[in-house]
Write a structure and sequence with these properties.
Layout lengths: L4 E4 L2 E5 L6 H18 L3 E5 L8 H16 L3 E5 L3 H10 L7 E3 L2 H14 L13 H5 L6 E2 L3 E2 L2
Parallel strand pairs: 2-3, 3-4, 4-5
Antiparallel strand pairs: 1-2, 6-7
Length: 151
Amino acid sequence: MHVPILKQGDYLIATIQSVLSDADLLQLRDDLADRVGQFRSRGVIIDVTVLDVIDSFPTRTLRGVAHMLRLRGANTVIVGIQPDVAFAMVQLGLTLEGVGTALDLEEGLAFLNAKTKRAGGVVARTGGTAPSSLSKSPPDARTRRGNRPLQ
């Protein structure tokens, strides 16, 4: 089953829509690695809301994907882990150590926004970052849209 990956600004959103085989999980890993490089994404959200079981292989794979994407410059957050799934993971000793998690897509976006803001300011289109002083200065009263002088 192919997992759709949508681009939303500087982020990618992968929404798992049905139970995935081990091969599907590995394909998702490869697709995300390619897309992060292609789009220079700063963050990735993996939505697992539909999964009612996350055993050891998916847990290991998702953790590995998050660490790999971090090495490629993108923060990862996994959203939508169901209460019963979280309980079972704890009982089995399965952890997503070092990986951000959030309740839903909205909180996942807030998590990534906070992470990228702390990383040093506004991300420029070229992939660099602007100094934090540029992102925090209020627009001058004499300028229109904060960047062009009035004529």
